[in-house]
Amino acid sequence: MSKQIVDKINNLIKQHHEFFSRAIPLIASENITSKACRMATICDFQHRYAEGWPGKRVYAGCEYLDQVELICQDLAQKYWRASFADVRPISGVVANLALYTAMTTPKGKMMAMPIPSGGHISHAPKIAKQTGKEINGTAGTVRGLDVEYLAFDQKEMNLNIDESAKRIRAFKPELVLFGGSVFLFPHPVKELSAVAKEVGAHVAYDGAHVAGLIGSGYFQDPLREGAEAFTLSTHKTFPGPQHGCILTNGPDELNEKVKSACFPSMLSNHHLHNVAGFAITLAEMMEFGKVYHGQVIKNAKALAAALAAAGFKPLCEHKGYTASHQVVLDVTGLEKTFGLGADIEKALEKAAIIVNRNLLPWDAKEKREYTNPGGLRLGTSEVTRLGMKESDMKVIADFFKKIIIDKKDPKTIAPDVAEFAKNFQTVKFCFEETKAFQWY
Ligand SMILES: *Cc1c(COP(=O)(O)O)cnc(C)c1O
User: Fold this and answer.
1) Are 103 and 247 in the same domain?
2) What three-state secondary structure class fits 270?
3) Which residues, in sequence order, are CB contacts of 290 under 8 Å at separation 6+?
4) Are 270 and 358 part of one and the same domain?
5) Residue 129, Cβ density class (10 Å: 0-12 exposed, 13-18 middle, ≥19 buried)
6) In sequence order, what are the beta bridge partners of 153?
7) In a domain, 23, yes or no
8) Are residues 272 and 299 in the same domain?
9) Which terminus of the chain is more solvent-facing, meaning fewer CB atoms within 10 Å of its CB: N or C?
10) Confidence (pLDDT) at 440
């Protein structure tokens, strides 16, 4: 019996790999790693502990682990132009929790993006102030923070500077956090940091989604626009293993707070194998990131334009749709002929086109919920790492049209999707290109 379970799990992994090799992966928060990165993430590091800071560990046996972590810190500082990097957070949420520990007092006050407009659940309060509903966001539930939302301009899909400034002055938070999960355009960090500093608030930036774009010199540069700290995930636009990181430009006092928030407060082991994979991916992005991330953004703009030409409604046409890896589609209006976000997500999945449904900022007002919202969020980071270019975005838009507008049975489109996907089975923008959907 037990051996059968082993076979079963291995078989399910194999089936997953086969499924993805026939698929078009468009989840905006996902990406794919190189062989060199994957090899590092299965090494003996995954069995080890290295609590503390390199050179000052509370475990023995860390000689080589320490060297890898120091290289990772150094490369992260160079890539993101920071003077300090803590590469121990095991994910973006853990990085945010360490940030809250370093920059707020328990039950203190924080401001962030509204969740329905694209803020992340780790920024959210326990109870939503507008509706009184329990949403159990990380900031409110784990740190007890009283979270007030910055003001959002739905037409511009960005923060409203004047209204947000008013709210910061009235609420006087300890921390203002920029960044979000729906992230089409750079946030006005410079303008609002100045206001935050007037009321003595710390300023930080959650670049989980856009970290790769920032490192490669696109999008914005939060540490030079007023953010004192920058948290990130290493596996969204940055194509590394699942992990997190916190960057600052000092001072030492802040760095010491971040370090002690990570250990001993937040972490015991810190997934050393992924620190190694992170370091390798940093080396790859320092070499290939400029071209890779430039293409990611070009593809996102091309995908939005092709979808608009095919009859869909990508947000923010008046601003060129996007300045990031994301495209947000408004699928309202299709409810009578096809369905909403969840219906479309399911239909596309049957053709192995993988997307995620997403709330539009005005969904709540129009009585749509997350279970079947009015939006879809698409991302081009992974398909770009697999080698797709602008012309391929037209092919993808055509698949969307056939399934959703022409209402062809997705099962009949799946073979065409698989045939198209055959051309994109190699992980690029790394030193040794290899097959994508296999162990390593
Ligand atoms: C994805 C995301 C996170 C969390 O990322 P994990 O690495 O999965 O913990 C944090 N903040 C934002 C804005 C995100 O989009």
Assistant:
1) yes
2) coil
3) 216, 217
4) no
5) exposed
6) 158
7) no
8) no
9) N
10) 80
Residue-number span of the structural domain to which 404 is assigned: 289-435
CB 166 within 8 A of CB 174: no
Q: Are residues 265 and 328 in the same domain?
A: no
Ligand 1: which of 231, 233, 278 to mutate, most ligand atoms within 8 Å of CB? 233
- For residue 408, being part of any structural domain is answered with yes
Cβ atoms of 245 and 95 closer than 8 Å:
yes
Let me know whether 189 and 303 are in one domain.
Answer: no
Ligand 1, pocket-test mutation among 27, 96, 99, 181, most atoms within 8 A of CB: 181
β-bridge mates for residue 233, sequence order: 244
Neighbours of 74 (CB within 10 A): 14
In CATH, what number is assigned to the domain containing residue 415? 3.90.1150.10
Angle of the 410-421 helix axis to the 341-350 helix axis, nearest 10: 60
Which pair of structure tokens corresponds to residue 212?
């790769």
Largest separation between any pair of C-alpha atoms in the chain: 65
CA-to-CA distance for 204 and 130, rounded, in angstroms? 24
Q: Whose CA is nearest to atom 6 of ligand 1?
A: 92
pTM, two decimal places: 0.97
At 15 the pLDDT is 97
Instruction: List, as one string, the DSSP characters of 78-91.
Output: HHHT-SEEE---SS
Q: Ligand 1 centre and the CA of 341: distance in Å? A: 21
Q: Select from 264, 283, 302 the last residue of a domain.
A: 283
Q: Domain of 123: which CATH number?
A: 3.40.640.10
DSSP string of 402-436? IIIIS---HHHHHHHHHHHHTT--EE-SSSS-EES
Q: Which residues in the chain land under pLDDT 50?
A: none
The whole-angstrom separation of Cα 262 and Cα 256 is 10
How far is Cα 241 from Cα 30, in angstroms, rounded to an integer?
10
